[in-house]
Amino acid sequence: MQWEIVVGLEVHVQLSTCSKIFSGASTAFGAAPNTAACAVDLALPGVLPVLNRGAVERAIRLGLAVGGRIRSPSVFARKNYFYPDLPKGYQISQYELPIVEGGSVAIRSGEVDRVIRLVRAHLEEDAGKSLHEDFHGMTGIDLNRAGTPLLEVVSEPDMRSSAEAVSYARTLHALVRWIGICDGNMQEGSFRCDANVSVRPAGSDRLGTRCEIKNLNSFRFLEKAIDYEAGRQMEVLEDGGKILQQTRLYDPDRNETRAMRSKEDAQDYRYFPDPDLLPLEIGEDWIAQVRRDLPELPQQMRQRLERDHGLSAYDAAALTADREMAQYYEAVVARLPDDPKLCANWVMGEVSAHLNGVGKSFDGCPLSPAQLARLLGRIRDDTLSGRMAKDVFGRMWAQAGDDPVAWKDRKEQAGEDLADRIIESQGLRQVSDEGELEGWIDAVIAANARSVEEFRAGKEKAFNALVGQVMKVARGKANPARVNELLKKKLTG
After folding, report:
1. What is the CATH number of domain 434-492?
2. Hey, is 151 helix, strand or coil?
């Protein structure tokens, strides 16, 4: 039987507030266990929650960015369940009336553009953390995360493969970082995915029984978990079995999912409005102000880069995958507006590769956009070949040294003309003078009679070999385009 995979994601986005959603305790990562939890987070008798305005504003920002409806009023509810790391015995969340309803996220998976619809995005508090591996025969409870503000973004079951699910998760991850509501650090738990996976016969419009895979904190694990779970369900069904609605855990060491518990439905949590929190009223003037403060969104910038800069859809998508990268590119191309494609190639290529090599992002790049633009300008005016420019770029980068903290100061001290000074001091200027080039070419022709005969007999590889010899004689300083032109003229004239 042919099967179709159906996937919906619930993504927990940790909001970038300094304090928790209902208390003034710090949200900073890495504190000693139970030192970042106050009386409210610990649910001591008599404490009351006070809503964090910054968390609400970040939720509004996401709602506007995805084209959702900002609901007013929205209502906080108590989600009742018992677990050792949940101090109150319930989680404050939103159920019937979430802060954001609807919306969508446009994705590109392979060569296919898709729109993934959203059901909702609701505010809630995080639970604490159970530590099983640090204690022998016991479990430790760290409540530092308790009360951390989350925005849970729930998609419709619109994805049909693990690749589409990863594309959606990556797009949402880039968006929440772009609009400044989350740092996106998956290793620290700032962006976590739960995948609802089911399968159905190809062509059917009925949803199968779903299983939820909890707390996937990497895109690679998300893809592997969905693929494994879909395969498991197909095998069960083809053997005549039934899928049980379950919450499952993905084990990356064994690349398998395992049952944790039967999957709860909403009624199992006995939701009811939290009596300590009033309905949340959001005025139109506040929404309008947040809308005005939103930056240009990735989809809008992609369209502009394609339209105004003539970039391909691939290049535009790659440049807007990260806001700092997009801003860096825009600053470079502002100084070299006649060649946006050259700017894009270098930002996506050399600069990205070097940053990845030292584990840094564009906001920590040791070379300023002005310095890169000056280097690219020397390619444009034929001072440097592309190969020589990479050499100069490496020398510019090396001036950053081994201390990333000092990059900013060194970048400012180096000056915009850094590339020019390296070119002059190292004698790296490209040779385009016809007389000098012809001297090298004549010498190579005289020394390589066999290659000359092979080229004239129709072997194109022989011509490339001769060009290589000229570049070798010139020690890489010859203008490749002029070498090709003059060599071909001499051999065919």
Report:
1. 1.10.10.410
2. strand
